[in-house]
Amino acid sequence: MTIKNNSTRERDQFIMVLEAIQSDFQVFGEKIDMMEERMNARFDAIENRLDRMEVRVDAIELRLDRIELRLNNIEIELANIKLEISDLKTKLDKKVDMERLERLENRVRHIEAVLVKEKRK
Question: Among positive and negative, which fits the CA dihedral 79, 82, 86, 91?
Answer without folding.
Answer: positive
